[in-house]
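Troubleshooting entry. Yesterday's outputs looked truncated, so today I'm pasting the complete records for two proteins to confirm everything comes through intact. If either block looks cut off, that's the bug. Protein one:
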Amino acid sequence: MKYVKMLGLLAVAAAALMAFAGTASAQLTSPKGTPFTGTITGTSTDSHLTGSVTIACKHSVVSGSISKGATTGAISTLDFTGCEPDTVVVLKKGHLTIDRVAANHGTVTSTGAEVTVLTHRTIFGFPVTTHCIYATNNTHIGTFTGSPNDTSHATIDINGSIPRIATDGTCGEDPAIWTGTYTITSPKPLYLS
């Protein structure tokens, strides 16, 4: 159960990484002061989805492109690997939005991301698989912190609650809690003004 919820959260985190933009008055810049246009890529080595079971994935990559002055971005790549013995599959990548709350800081929201989680366990000697799907709809999933200087990476800290779509009855009613930190590997630096 925790694994299933964790996977849903991972999908949301990935969606959050691709939003890198804020309200109409906010913009992502790289270098500082120059509106950024292009692909933003983030990676994580510590993503967890926690529900009735905890799923830990060793690696996750999220990327997507934004236009100059954009406040939201569609995710083009969202992968989770090293989640054994469980399986996390991204069904829909969704969009991310960053809303500026202070200088170089913002909140990250995901819409339209959908992740399916298959947890594989052995109970009383019998293999049991639980299938759960988690989806975002204007769901707050974390915070964005811009690069502290020109030689540092921006980050997205994921700590969000991802709602479950009706699937396997053993998934439970509670949402999955998704946690992890994504380092924005490209561009470097990345600021939110």
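Protein two, checking that the full record survives here as well:
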Amino acid sequence: MSYELSTRHYLAYSLPVITFTCLMGPINILQGIYAKYYGIPLTVIASILLLCRLFDAVLDPLVGYLSDRYCQHFGTYNPIILTGSLLFLGSSYFLYMPPINVDALYLAGWLLVFYFAWTLFEIPHLAWASRLAKTSVTKAKIYSFRIAAGYTGLLLFYAIPLLPIFESRDITPETLRVLVMVVIILALPFLMLCLKTKFKIPRQVNPSNVQKAFSAHTASVQKSSFSLSLVKNKSLTIFLVAYLLIFLSSGMWYSLIFLYVDVYLGLGDQFSKMFLLAFIVGIGVTPIWYKLSVYLGKKSVWILATLLMIISYIFTGYLSPGEAGATELIILKTIQTLGFTCMGVVAPAMLSEIIDYSNWKNRSDNSATYFAIYTFTSKTSLAIATALGLFIAGWYGFDATASSHNEHGAFGLTLAMVWLPSLLGVLSLPLILLSPIDERGHQIICRRLEAIAARNRNKRNVIEKEGVRFID
């Protein structure tokens, strides 16, 4: 059975990501803003970010589980996505528009709400795409639209400091205030268009109906089998460890890049420009990565992307104050964006194929739970990486408020941004190669899922004839 998605469907699904990613953009430089403009020490910010990220990550499996149960019962993720979206917009207002006398407690409180709201939106939205796209090609395509929308949002964020209404090109509290107001105006119509678009989601297995038709014992067996399958799923384990290592490396780099450019290199006025131009490239190469993943396979392009990210880390170490300029920064961020864009396309698509394998083995759709594990891994690794990067820089004496820096502080910055991320990236390469599910294997899984769906339809018809009525 064939289910086609049109360009209209891909666009409608991706639209909210533009505005919400625009609000996620400052989160990687938030530590620099609160340290530079509000005087909160880096070590205190590092502790807050670590605790908030870990708390947020712990909530992911619960949100994923409840999202799956809700979707299986009501057939939609929309109310959860809507709730998370509205809460996300509200928390962004307070996080990016703090009072002048802001303290660490204020930052911690609104950061917790901000992360929780993003989780309520992100997990069901990612799982929704996995349910919409059933083939290896359409999975790569829908996530390529999603990553392109994300880069469009980041492009919008980094374009705002370049507006003529500002005296400088630096990212400042005033920049963030304008950002929040612009995004709120755009976010609501984008969200409504997404949620009101009619999508036809094919049902390969209807676990809710099967459970009603047979017994409660069947449901408990399925849950036990699913929990056990998570532990024994070799493909999932390899994927998550590789993903963890890459996010640890990129998280350390991202946690310090704003301070590196603005404070260490003294090129804060070039920061928005380097990200803006790089994200234009990111949007342009997204369809290229999609095509390459179809022709070369997702594993091959993921390895290429990881190598590009390693090159960007090493290139960072060759930049020095007084010598580096706008050209070097643009080259650096472009290389890094090329790799990260590819990862945004292939990683969720590969996980979606692993989900299909689980659906075949366990006869139930737990997409949101799998994506909750996925986001739990990324958030935990980013929390550890951000805290580790800031702690290493602070431990070696790097001062975000100083105008000049000694060799000891510069070494700590380089260790956290260059050498440790490069090592972690290298360690991920053999794991990506070992991933057992490829495009041919996924085609086999799809055929077996179709066979199960056909048998379930036949069972359903027989049971309905005997007087059992199903409610979808």
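Both blocks look complete. Sanity check on protein two: DSSP finds 16 helices and no strands in the chain.
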